Structures are given as C-alpha cells and as structure tokens.
Amino acid sequence: MTRKTYVLEGLCCPNCAAKIDEKVKELPQVKQASVDFQNTRLTLVYEGDESALLETIAGIARSVDEDIVVKGC
C-alpha cells in the first residue's frame, strides 16, 4: 500500500471538501482517504496504479467544482 498527499488547488468550501472525501472513499483501490479543507490537502492510502487513480480523483474533483486541480505535494 502507498500513502500520498495531494494539494487540492482551488478548493474553496467545506461542502466541496466533504463531497470529494465521500466520493474518493468509495473507490475500490482507496483504503483510507481524508480531505483537510483548511490545508486544501487530500491524504490517501491506496493500492495499484497512482496515475490512473490520480486521473479518477481529478475527475471527481472537477465534477464537484470545475476549478479544483489535484497536484502532488
């Protein structure tokens, strides 16, 4: 398993953070996920291919707010 933290650039409200948190936790390869609204960070513990997972998470973020960009720390 891999643990990584990503920046959610453009995350501007707690409601959006909660939606992203909920949807990311539903992904089968994600074992743990936490969105920290104050620091605009997403911390993940996951299995599998990071690039495919990151693309999926970026899509989730854009579906919540099209201005959110997911970047590695």
Largest sheet: 4 strands, antiparallel
Helical proportion, percent range: 25-40%
**Alpha-carbon distance between the termini?**
18 Å
* Residue fraction in strands: 25-35%
Number of domains: 1
> Total helix count?
2
* Principal-axes shape call: globular
- Quick check: average pLDDT? 94
Q: What would you report as the Rg, rounded to the nearest angstrom?
A: 11 Å
What string gives the helices and strands in order?
EHEEHE
The CATH architecture would be 2-Layer Sandwich
Level-1 CATH class name: Alpha Beta
Q: How many β-strands, per DSSP?
A: 4
The main sheet orders its strands as 2-3-1-4
Structural class per helix/strand content? alpha+beta
Low-confidence parts, pLDDT < 50 over ≥5 residues?
Answer: none
In CATH, the topology is named Alpha-Beta Plaits
Commentary on this structure:
With 73 residues, the chain is α+β, with helices and mostly antiparallel strands. It is built from 2 helices and 4 strands. It has one domain: Alpha-Beta Plaits (2-Layer Sandwich), CATH 3.30.70. The chain has helices spanning 14-25, 50-64, and strands at 2-9, 30-36, 41-46, 69-72. A 4-stranded antiparallel beta sheet has the order 2-3-1-4. The longest helix has 15 residues, at 50-64. It is globular, with a radius of gyration of 11 Å.
